[in-house]
């Protein structure tokens, strides 16, 4: 479980480094990576990234989550897969953004209920400061904050169960 979470963290860092390098700066939204990577077929790198993120995280997240809270990360990761798969479709407008926001809120609530409030505070402050400094990419940095919050919460909980 630890290895899959670490692989996901490394994959997320690598994906974002390449994305920022290829864009010559921070994109406005994470899903802009579809266009930045050149649309079809190279743009599907974003789809694969989201699917791999889901595939590597679903088992550790569900393993460390009590049954009465399991619906939160499951729905959040499901919405994340929906967001990743609707980038270049007719659903990529407001429905895409609403699902992304719901996913972020559910992961924040899950992190809080799992007792990782310190991570929520630290990552919220860091991502908010970066988003304030880089205002044109405000949403991107908040999305990255939510993704790293879910990754670090999962890693923390997995390490506590060893």
Radius of gyration: 15 Å
pLDDT below 50 for ≥5 consecutive residues: which ranges?
none
User: What's the total number of strands?
Assistant: 0
User: What is the count of distinct domains?
Assistant: 1
What shape does the CA trace take?
globular
Structural class estimated from helices and strands:
mainly alpha
Strand content: under 5%
* Helical residue percent band: over 70%
Mean model confidence by pLDDT: 90
Q: Main beta sheet: strand number and arrangement?
A: none
Number of helices: 7
Q: Tell me the span between the first and last alpha carbons.
A: 10 Å
**H/E element string?**
HHHHHHH
Layout of strands and helices, then pairs:
Layout: H1 2-23, H2 33-36, H3 45-64, H4 71-85, H5 94-113, H6 117-133, H7 138-160
Helix pairs in contact: 1-3, 1-7, 3-4, 3-7, 4-5, 5-7, 6-7
Comma- or semicolon-separated keywords:
162 residues, globular
Quick recap of the structure?
With 162 residues, the chain is mainly α.
Q: How would you describe what is shown here?
A:
- With 162 residues, the protein is mainly alpha-helical.
- The chain has one domain.
- The protein contains 7 helices and no strands.
- Helix 1 (2-23) packs antiparallel against helix 3 and helix 3 runs antiparallel to helix 4 (71-85).
């Amino acid at each position: 479980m630890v290895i899959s979470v670490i692989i996901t963290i490394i994959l997320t860092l690598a994906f974002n480094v390449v994305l920022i390098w290829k864009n010559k700066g921070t994109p406005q939204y994470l899903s802009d990576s579809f266009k930045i990577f050149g649309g079809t077929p190279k743009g599907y790198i974003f789809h694969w990234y989201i699917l791999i993120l889901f595939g590597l995280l679903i088992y550790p997240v569900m393993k460390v989550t009590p049954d009465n809270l399991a619906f939160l990360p499951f729905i959040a990761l499901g919405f994340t897969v929906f967001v990743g798969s609707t980038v270049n479709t007719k659903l990529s407008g407001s429905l895409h953004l609403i699902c992304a926001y719901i996913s972020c809120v559910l992961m924040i609530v899950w992190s809080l209920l799992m007792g990782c409030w310190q991570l929520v505070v630290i990552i919220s402050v860091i991502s908010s400061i970066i988003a304030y400094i880089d205002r044109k990419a405000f949403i991107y940095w908040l999305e990255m904050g939510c993704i790293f919050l879910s990754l670090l919460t999962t890693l923390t909980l997995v390490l506590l169960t060893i």
